[in-house]
């Protein structure tokens, strides 16, 4: 048994990382400390105020462990790595785990290529970026290859020179075919140097060259070539316009700004590379109400720059942060040269911070509006259903559907919606064990019996082991069961619940003759629904989702050739004949009653196969 007070006495007065666990041994918080003894003691002192979130966390601590380091910098690195791996509940967390693309020029090769890359490795290649748009990077690479006729193949040159014919790119004049030695290493290198100039932002030469080629092609009446040059020139101009000069010294910087309210925060980052604004991105941060702006920005820097391969020389912030010196040392170690964290008071940098903050606030406000709309579609829709049924506190809803092919194979589906949203991790599939033939009521009875029997047994096991319901996939029962149909389906469900001694509200989603939802069947009454309401739309989504999930399961079984009927046991009846029989006859009984002449009249069938089917059903014992 872990005794917290006794273990507190053993803490060393050294830097390190501490890890808090709850009663289920789940890591709920990770932190670093200059002195483990002083920092961890603070959590358990009644007079010390860490805020509401930390107070809730302390109540859940069942044990803690710690790792001693030689310095605060080592503790910072370890803290970042552990948080990224375990993503503890009570740590302020980046919600986004993004990787950014680079343009890689493989200068280590005799005939270099321009490639897309998600990593910046320590090799002989030259990297440009990171960029915020993968699509824009791919478009740029495609344009560079067209402009300079660079190779895109994976051939090892010059070793493989002449071994294979040139590819299509050579024939459409998009590659000079170094694989055939049609261009020298020196000539190819000139083209690579020009591509590097382009990537460095020097567009003047290529724009002038394209304009001259366009005019010449036009004079030579080669209008297709002229159009191609014109389009390339337009693409280059578009890229040139996007590269806005922000500072004349050509350095790499990140401008970081923050917008927050009580529950959410957005960090906006402007990426400046070589003095040019190449893009921006925003990041959502999970916060507590007591988290300060300083704490959020500090946490963001730790988590963001522990995951990105590129560290700029300068990080511009809207305000001073905690641990500035140790963070600068850590970033410098990752970059391999000095890194500065600065808070500008005036000038261009201060204006850029203001611009980034405006963008962050705009993203946060838009997100809030989106969340309000989403809440109307989900929680608001559930409240409408509650009002219709005169119920309260509906959180979890379950819906079921049956799918078969003329009764030859029957499967059931269970879908789950929580707070108006699908919870796909709780979806379940059922392959019917006791029912053959197209009997939807009997099939539904089996599915519901298996689902709730399993749930009752699981609840009992969890109770004996003193575990919460979240550890069982079936143990959580719904607040409302929604059956796809009216009185008949509802009564089947109520019968199963009565047999198992359970009391769960059940309603039916009733459809009209055109298979469109028209109302809810509840307590022996059909309740009409406003077809324009969010509640109606949610019910329709639940119906469609239950049907989709059942059909998908059935389709997957068929695609794996797992659908088996007694027809598979008849000699000479393969998939095409089985399909034809199933299409013509509605059940096994109909096939069994058919004459040889009728069977011969079926597509793909001949006299021999018809007699095989006829005799099989009269001479064999068929489980049906």
Question: Can you tell me about this structure?
Answer:
The chain is an alpha+beta fold. The protein has five domains: 4-91, GIY-YIG endonuclease; 102-201, no CATH class; 253-374, Nucleotidyltransferase, domain 5, CATH 3.30.420; 388-559, Nucleotidyltransferase, domain 5 (2-Layer Sandwich); 566-619, DNA polymerase, domain 1 (Orthogonal Bundle), CATH 1.10.150. 44% of the residues lie in helices and 18% in strands. Strands 14, 15, 16, 17, 18, 19, 20 and 21 form an eight-stranded mixed beta sheet that branches. Strands 4, 8, 9, 10, 11, 12 and 13 form a seven-stranded mixed beta sheet that branches. The radius of gyration is 34 Å and the shape is extended. Mean pLDDT is 82; it is low at 242-248, 559-564 and 620-624.
Summarize the structure.
The chain is an alpha+beta fold and 624 residues long. Strands 14, 15, 16, 17, 18, 19, 20 and 21 form an eight-stranded mixed β-sheet that branches. Strands 4, 8, 9, 10, 11, 12 and 13 form a seven-stranded mixed β-sheet that branches.
What brief labels describe this structure?
GIY-YIG endonuclease, seven-stranded mixed β-sheet, 624 residues, alpha+beta, 5 domains, single chain
Rg result: 34 Å
* Helix proportion range: 40-55%
CATH topology of the largest domain, what is it called?
Answer: Nucleotidyltransferase, domain 5
CATH superfamily of the largest domain: UvrC, RNAse H endonuclease domain
Distance between the termini: 59 Å
What gross morphology would you assign?
A: extended
Q: Give the tally of structural domains.
A: 5
CATH level-two architecture of the largest domain: 2-Layer Sandwich
Which CATH class of the largest domain is shown?
Answer: Alpha Beta
Summarize the main sheet.
8 strands, mixed
- What's the rounded overall pLDDT mean? 82
Strand % is 15-25%
- The total count of strands amounts to 21
Tally of contiguous helical segments: 20
Structural class: alpha+beta
Instruction: Identify the quaternary structure here.
Output: single chain
Uncertain segments are 242-248, 559-564, 620-624
């Amino acid at each position: 048994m872990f005794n917290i007070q006794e273990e507190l006495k053993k803490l060393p007065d050294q830097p390190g990382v501490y890890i808090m666990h709850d009663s289920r041994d789940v890591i709920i918080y990770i932190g670093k400390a200059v002195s483990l003894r002083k920092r961890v003691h603070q959590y358990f002192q009644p007079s010390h105020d860490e805020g509401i979130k930390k107070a809730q966390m302390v109540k859940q601590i069942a044990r803690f462990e710690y790792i001693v380091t030689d310095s605060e910098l080592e503790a910072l690195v370890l803290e970042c790595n552990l948080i990224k791996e375990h993503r503890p509940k009570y740590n302020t967390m980046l919600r986004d785990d993004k990787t950014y693309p680079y343009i890689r020029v493989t200068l280590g090769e005799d005939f270099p290529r321009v490639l897309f890359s998600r990593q910046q490795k320590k090799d002989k290649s030259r990297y440009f970026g990171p960029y915020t748009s993968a699509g824009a990077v791919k478009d740029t690479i495609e344009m560079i290859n067209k402009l300079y006729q660079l190779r895109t193949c994976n051939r090892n040159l010059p070793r493989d020179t002449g071994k294979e014919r040139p590819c299509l790119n050579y024939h459409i004049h998009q590659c000079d075919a170094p694989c055939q030695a049609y261009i020298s290493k020196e000539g190819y290198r000139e083209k690579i140097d020009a591509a590097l100039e382009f990537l460095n932002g020097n567009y003047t030469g290529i724009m002038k060259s394209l304009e001259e080629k366009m005019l010449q092609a036009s004079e030579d009446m080669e209008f297709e070539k002229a159009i191609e040059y014109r389009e390339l020139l337009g693409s280059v101009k578009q890229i040139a316009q996007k590269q806005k000069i922000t500072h004349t010294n050509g350095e790499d910087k990140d401008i970081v700004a923050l917008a927050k309210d009580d529950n959410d925060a957005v960090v906006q980052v402007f990426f400046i590379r070589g003095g040019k604004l190449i893009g921006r991105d925003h990041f959502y941060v999970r916060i507590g109400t007591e988290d300060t702006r300083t704490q959020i920005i500090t946490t963001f820097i730790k988590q963001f720059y522990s995951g990105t391969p590129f560290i700029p020389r300068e990080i511009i912030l809207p305000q001073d942060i905690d641990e500035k010196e140790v963070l600068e040392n850590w970033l410098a170690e990752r970059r391999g040269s000095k890194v500065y964290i600065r808070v500008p008071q005036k000038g261009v940098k201060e204006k850029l911070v203001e611009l980034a903050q405006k963008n962050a606030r705009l993203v946060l406000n838009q997100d809030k509006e989106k969340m309000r709309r989403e809440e109307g579609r989900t929680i608001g829709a559930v409240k409408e259903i509650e009002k219709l049924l005169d119920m309260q506190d509906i959180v979890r809803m379950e819906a079921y559907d049956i799918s078969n092919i003329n009764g030859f194979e029957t499967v059931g589906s269970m879908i789950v919606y929580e707070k108006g949203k699908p919870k796909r991790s709780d979806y379940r599939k059922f392959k019917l064990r006791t029912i053959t033939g197209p009997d939807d009521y009997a099939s539904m009875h089996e599915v519901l019996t298996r689902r709730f029997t399993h749930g009752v047994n699981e609840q009992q096991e969890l109770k004996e082991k003193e575990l919460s319901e979240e550890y069982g996939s079936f143990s959580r029962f719904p607040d409302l069961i929604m059956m796809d149909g009216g009185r008949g389906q509802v009564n089947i469900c109520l019968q199963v619940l009565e047999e198992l001694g359970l009391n769960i509200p059940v309603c039916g989603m009733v459809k009209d003759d055109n298979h469109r939802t028209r109302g809810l069947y509840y307590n022996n009454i059909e309740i009409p629904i406003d077809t324009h309401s969010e509640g109606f739309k949610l019910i329709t989504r639940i119906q469609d989702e239950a049907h989709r999930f059942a059909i998908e399961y059935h389709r997957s079984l068929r695609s794996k050739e797992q659908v088996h009927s007694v027809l598979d046991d008849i000699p000479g009846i393969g998939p095409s004949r089985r399909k034809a029989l199933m299409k013509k006859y509605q059940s096994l009984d109909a096939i069994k009653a058919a004459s040889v002449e009728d069977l011969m009249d079926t597509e793909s069938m001949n006299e021999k196969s018809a007699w095989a089917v006829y005799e099989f059903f009269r001479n064999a014992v068929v489980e049906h």
